[in-house]
Amino acid sequence: MKLVVNLKMVKSNIIIFLLVFLISLGVVSALDCTSVGCDNNNVCYNYGELLEANSNLYCDSNGSFVAQKNIGAVCSNNFECSSGYCLSDRCANVSNILSQYASLFANLSALASGPCSASPGCLNTSSLANAHNLTNLCSGTQLGYVCYQCNENYNWTGSSCTKMNCTSSPGCLNKSSLDNSYKIDRVCPTNYQCFSCDSSYAWNSSSSACEYYPDSSGVVGGGYARVLTNAELTNGFTGELRLGWVYKFYFLGTYYYITVTSLSSNQMTIRITPRTKTLTFNIGEEKKVDLNNDDTYDLSIKLNSIQNRIASVTLKFISESINNPLLNTGNPPDDTTPIEVNNDESSEGLITIIVVIVIAIIIILIIIALIFLFRSRRNLQTQ
């Protein structure tokens, strides 16, 4: 009996112990949650944590959930504010702050750009057709004004930005494209477009083309396409030439210019200055030039080919006597190769030769006469 009673008492004690242990766990758990945050339906939240992602309730340091504060309310932490930002102990609207900073930077940029001096300038409108905004500053009395400038190819006419008339060269043409030029968005008649020649090109009305002029004179062929070095010409230079292009080179103290004055699909004409010479070439033809009129060929020029109005030419310094056929291995001058001849110098040389011959004949006659006279006297003495 005593053993049975003891077993019952042991079981009761175990049950009571388990109940006390479970109750203790619950109490400890509840105490641990409230010591680090807030409890909501047996879910523990840390201090500053929102009750839900989109909720405006946060866990306060007193262990309860508190509603977030509005803009301007006193705060210590960001989570206390509905905006999520606590600046200078006040709940702040960060978007307003950013816009204020943007406005400040815009004003600083405008101040750095200087006053608005564009056309049309400061206008009290939020938009203007065919114009763009500038960062330049409008005066303090022009609050809400914007500095405007008309777009390229537009002029301010007093009330609007209006497209300009085509005043470039060649101007309005009834074609869709033009070599060595670009189109400008300006006013032209219907089906016409405004063209302007590219940089280093000028409009030649006689050939109706934009032709090369490398200098700033505006005259077609007024400059040079390239300066050729003595080394290039000594070794032989092959390059391209277009209508109006110029090669410039130095020879024996003088600069010479080779200008393309005419160019077709199978023929090229050039002008060499100074001591102007004009030469016409067919494809594959080579000619030699006496640059300084010293009876010596100084330069050979060959037209290799013509493709798309671009000529391939080869130039080379040579030194070949015009009067010695053994040294002249190239094409002899003919009627199609204009080589300047100084007629005065030729006449003077011929006269000199004639005078020398006459003097020589006279001297020979005098010698013969003296010999004859000497022999006659000798014969008289012997008799």
Describe this structure in words.
The longest helix is centred in the C-terminal third of the chain and has 40 residues, at 343-382. The protein is α+β, with helices and mostly antiparallel strands and 383 residues long. 26% of the residues lie in helices and 32% in strands. Strands 17-19-20-21-22 form a five-stranded mixed β-sheet, with no helix packed on it. A four-stranded antiparallel β-sheet has the order 18-25-24-23. Mean pLDDT is 78; it is low at 1-5, 27-31, 215-224, 326-330 and 332-343. Among the domains are: 46-92, no CATH class; 109-163, no CATH class; 170-212, no CATH class; 226-344, Tick-borne Encephalitis virus Glycoprotein, domain 1 (Sandwich), CATH 2.60.98. The protein contains four helices and 25 strands.
CATH topology of the domain at 226-344: Tick-borne Encephalitis virus Glycoprotein, domain 1
Tally of helical runs: 4
Indicate the structural class: alpha+beta
Terminus-to-terminus distance: 213 Å
How would you sum up the global shape? Answer: elongated
The first-level CATH class of the domain at 226-344 is given as Mainly Beta
Going by CATH, the architecture of the domain at 226-344 would be Sandwich
- How helix-rich are the residues, as a percent range? 25-40%
Instruction: List how many beta strands DSSP finds.
Output: 25
Give the ordered list of helices and strands: HEEEEEEHEEEEEEEEEEEHEEEEEEEEH
Q: Strand portion, in percent?
A: 25-35%
Instruction: Give Rg in angstroms.
Output: 52 Å
Please mark out the parts with pLDDT under 50 across 5 or more consecutive residues, or reply none.
1-5, 27-31, 215-224, 326-330, 332-343
Averaged pLDDT, please?
78
